[in-house]
Amino acid sequence: MALYEHIYIARQDVTAQQVETLTENLKTLIAAQGGSVSKVEAWGLKSLAYRIKKNRKAFFTLMNIDAPAAAITELERQLGHNEDVIRFMTVRVDAHEAGPSAMLRKRDDADRDERGGGRPPRGDRPGGPPRRSRDDAQAGGF
Fold this sequence. Notes:
Order of helices and strands: EHEEHEHH
Helix content: 25-40%
Largest sheet: 4 strands, antiparallel
Radius of gyration: 23 Å
Number of helices: 4
Number of strands: 4
Low-confidence stretches: none
Shape: elongated
Mean pLDDT: 83
Oligomer: single chain
Strand order of the largest sheet: 2-3-1-4
Strand content: 25-35%
């Protein structure tokens, strides 16, 4: 059997529970075709780069699949008929990525920046130019 990464995006007006139900149905479909799903990552509701079928946001879900090609063909056929799914993409890979995907690592980095782990403001950095006050700027003619 081959290894695949499958991502689908669902419309913004479906609920998170409906997306989870759809994912479970897809896992059942793959298992019935003789495959297995090793990892599922729900990336949540994200903004799209451009409108797709009148949607500006969508629910993203990643699935790591180990299945025969016939199972992937049936999966894509079923998703093509589902009106809640905007787009999907399946890519064959040599090995599945261990640990969280790049999207989840990116989210962890953003959380770290919100806690104050980022850079200080420019004028307050050691070795940077000193910060001038408004009075200094008026007096110096700059």
